[in-house]
Write a structure and sequence with these properties.
By secondary structure, this protein is an all-alpha fold. It has a single domain, classed as Up-down Bundle (Glycerol uptake facilitator protein), CATH 1.20.1080. The protein has 13 helices and no strands. It is globular. It starts with 5 loop residues before the first helix and ends in a 10-residue tail after the last helix.
């Protein structure tokens, strides 16, 4: 059989969560950095495709290549560990506690951000100094695209106040509902082609529907600022990154990790037949 049954999947999710929270600080940081860099490099690629083709759909179809690469390398995104890291604690695995979970989340968030910022620097340098064309041709196109995205998804939310903030929060929930399905897809599919499809499909959906992913946004908005978008770091954090990451947590843990654990590992006692 080339896929796991649901109870086997739930057990594998618990084991994966314990492996992540027990990992050394060095390895956690390296894997978080690699994940942030690969995912955001794919975002840069998708932006380039969108800019050149004018098609969001084509960019969405191609973007998951970064997610697939980082998962095949067992690198970690903060969105993925939201779904998995709490499970061994909830299951009361020996030696697992909430301090380990929060430590893991802090290290992964920091290293994801570092990887994303490295790609921001390299992408900005590449665009400004001759990326597949002259600077005079390329820079204005990236500026126009990223200004629209960066300003629309920060100042655009700010314009509506608390309703805008919660709109971003909800888009973060919807995003990581899908992304976490891609994470567990890499666990329950046993063949390479199966893993590819199970990761590719939900990631394509979230990207095309322009939901909010905390790590993609760690690249997108600093890159927009480097291209001249009129937003500040406080605009980015208050009106996008903070509601996004809170929504990503809710979507990953409460809509994916916890339900699968409860219904397939800690199943309720069935009703007796009459």
């Amino acid at each position: 059989m080339d896929y796991l049954q649901p109870r086997e999947l739930a057990e594998k999710m618990i084991n994966a969560g314990e492996e992540k929270i027990s990992m050394s600080t060095r390895d956690t940081l390296i894997r978080g950095f690699g994940a942030g860099a690969l995912l955001t490099l794919a975002a840069f690629f998708a932006l380039t495709v969108i800019m050149k083709s004018g098609s969001l759909l084509v960019g969405a179809i191609l973007f998951p290549i970064g997610f697939i690469m980082l998962n095949m390398m067992k690198f970690d995104l903060i969105t993925g560990v939201f779904a998995l890291a709490p499970l061994p604690v909830i299951n009361k695995n020996p030696g697992c506690h909430w301090g380990m979970v929060f430590r893991n989340w802090a290290l992964i968030f920091t290293s994801n951000f570092a990887g994303a910022l490295m790609v921001v620097f390299l992408a900005s340098f590449s665009v400004r100094y001759g990326f597949s064309g002259t600077t005079e041709e390329i820079l204005p196109k990236f500026h126009d695209l990223l200004s629209k995205v960066g300003e629309g998804r920060t100042l655009g939310f700010e314009k509506y106040g608390i309703a805008g903030w919660f709109t971003c929060f909800v888009r973060g929930i919807l995003c990581n509902w899908m992304v976490s399905m891609g994470v567990i897809g890499a666990l329950y599919a046993q063949s390479t082609i199966g893993k590819f499809f199970c990761m590719w499909a939900p990631i394509m959906c979230f990207f095309f529907m322009v939901f909010e992913h905390a790590v993609v946004n760690m690249f997108l908005f600093p890159f927009a600022m480097s291209m001249g978008a009129e937003i500040t770091l406080s605009d980015f954090f208050l009106w996008n990154e903070i509601p996004t990451i809170l929504g990503n947590f809710v979507g990953g843990f409460f809509l994916v990790g916890l339900p699968i654990y409860l219904t397939h590992f800690k199943t309720a006692k069935p009703l007796k037949e009459s």
